[in-house]
Design goal:
Layout (H helix, E strand, L loop, with lengths): L1 E7 L11 E5 L6 E6 L6 E7 L3 E9 L2 E3 L6 E3 L7 E4 L2 E4 L4 E7 L13
Antiparallel strand pairs: 1-4, 2-3, 2-5, 3-4, 5-6, 5-10, 7-10, 8-9
Length: about 120
């Protein structure tokens, strides 16, 4: 499935400083650079292919972990603190609270948008 990840200041949260990174659980929370939006100087976005099932993710802006206020949040009971790597920087992150999205496992990966 294709998912649009975005951060639009101030609706998504208080942080807005460049660079911005997206950290997704199935990438072991390795930072993915978010490019600035051309339509909004205070916004960042990235389209990513994601696997079916539940997906946990977070944003890092100005070296601080952030949850997008517009997206669903999830509290993790048994969380770990992996090391987050981005922009030649590594720091520990807390996974007590993350954003999440779910795609049903029985949904077709190739949908009407991709039919010929």
């Amino acid at each position: 499935m294709e998912h649009d990840f975005s951060w639009i200041y101030p609706r998504s949260g208080k942080a807005f400083r460049h660079p911005a990174f997206l950290c997704i659980d199935y990438y072991s929370y390795q930072g993915i650079y978010l490019g600035p939006l051309t339509k909004s100087p205070s916004g960042y976005a990235s389209k990513r292919m994601v696997p079916p099932g539940q997906l946990n993710y977070l944003y890092v802006l100005d070296d601080v972990q952030n949850m997008n206020l517009l997206h669903e949040k999830r509290v993790l009971r048994d969380y770990t603190t992996p090391w987050l790597s981005y922009s030649e920087t590594s720091c520990p992150i807390s996974l007590e609270e993350v954003n999440c999205v779910s795609y049903p496992k029985d949904e077709n990966v190739i949908n009407k948008r991709y039919e010929v």
